[in-house]
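Lab meeting, action items carried over

1. Structure of the two-component assembly. Owner: GW. Status: complete.
Input record:
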Amino acid sequence: MTIRVDYRKKLQAIFDKLVLMCRHAEDVCEKSVGAFAEKDLEIAREVKTIEKTIDKLERKIEKACLRLLVMEHPVASDFREVSATLKIIKDLERIGDQSKDIAKITIKLADTNIDIPENIRQMGVIIIQMIKDAVQAYINRDLQLALSIDETDDKADALFDIIMNDLVSIIQKNPQDAKQGLQLIMVAKYLERIGDHAVNIGEHTAFLIRGKV
Amino acid sequence: MRQKCEKSKKGTRATNFIRNLCVQRMAKTVNISINNCNLYYGDFHALKGIGNDMPMEIGANKVTAFIGPSGCGKSTFIRVFNRMNDLIQNCKITGEIKIGEQDIYDKNTDVTLLRKNVGMVFQKPNPFPMSIYDNIAFAPRTYGVKKKARLDEIVERSLKQAALWDEVRDRLKKSALGLSGGQQQRLCIARTLAAEPKIILMDEPTSALDPISTGTIEDLIRELKKTYTIVIVTHNMQQATRISDKTAFFLMGEVVEYDKTRQIFSNPKDKRTENYVTGRFG
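Predicted assembly:
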């Protein structure tokens, strides 16, 4: 016999919305990185629209979680579910913001003939995979995958250091390209931050599964 | 410590004071230990091997909550501690239940003294149909206290401990039945305290009360645990999380899980506990 049917439905609805938000976050990051690599302005503009959808979902999910906490007093794994959701939506929302920031730079660099360094493209691939892994770990409650994201982040961080050094030496050699070089550094930094949010999602998922931080 | 208490049974105010001090100090150290407790109502096996893997310890100066669905054995178990089940025909108990160092099912146990040491508060407030004063003085009188000054002192102290003194000090001679539900329940707690117990058992003490009275009783329980060991049966999960240090989850006569309350309600180890506290049980 199932009891508290309405409560279960509400919990499921929150989960469904979060999965949708996760999918949008994957999408926005993939499109943002793709648009930057291909200098595709149309997709860069689309990123802004998806980011707004993510923001709306964040507000909706937060409201639903707070209402559930007040009205239903979830405990144990249900409480962890709600608690993890409240944290994960913040990370997804920031992923949306930083993807939008990358899209803005894509639009700014559209008129230039700047070459996108291979390392940034490579970092983009790693970061997209990290988000996919984080989302997959959350949906499938995969503890091993959730914890593995941190290791991947180390690779992304190492790549970020290389990109920084490369770009700094390029700027030193060609000061006239400093503005564009800084924009590239910004993109690398946004990617690095997105990676950190993926790690956070992995950690929240691990807490959800294990019940300890 | 015990010798000192015995010597001071009859005596002056000073020796009474020492005796009270002894009782209070003993109260601070008393805990309950349950080792493989089984209870049968005729053929029905109501409690199944509680503390059989390792003795279940109910800590002194702690609030321990028993939770579980109706009919799972919580109230039966709580009544084991003051041998109230002895009053039920065909009830048989095996195993070892120790309060402090004493096995309470030992044949030499003085059951009257045991029930003085292990007070009980029930679900529905049950004041005696007499004055507030006489309700509180009932137990001390039964245990031989006759001096009015001493009785006055016990009544005042018990009512103060039960956070009721300020509300009833001007009408001690009026009927206890005229008090509100919450006041009646605090009166019952005060009546329990007047017997100077070491342990207080509470069987759903707030289930018949409004949220304000419930809050008052919960504050009171937090205060009382400084001096007493408290065991509470509750169906209110939030209440268990608010006031108890440890929680035992009962199911079909067994203790499925017994752990810190924080653990039980955040990350229980047993799936059945998880299902019950999250409301999936059924």
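2. GW to write a short summary for the group page. Key points so far: Residues 1-11, 21-27 of chain B have pLDDT under 50 and may be disordered. Residues 158 and 190 of chain B are 5 Å apart (CA to CA).
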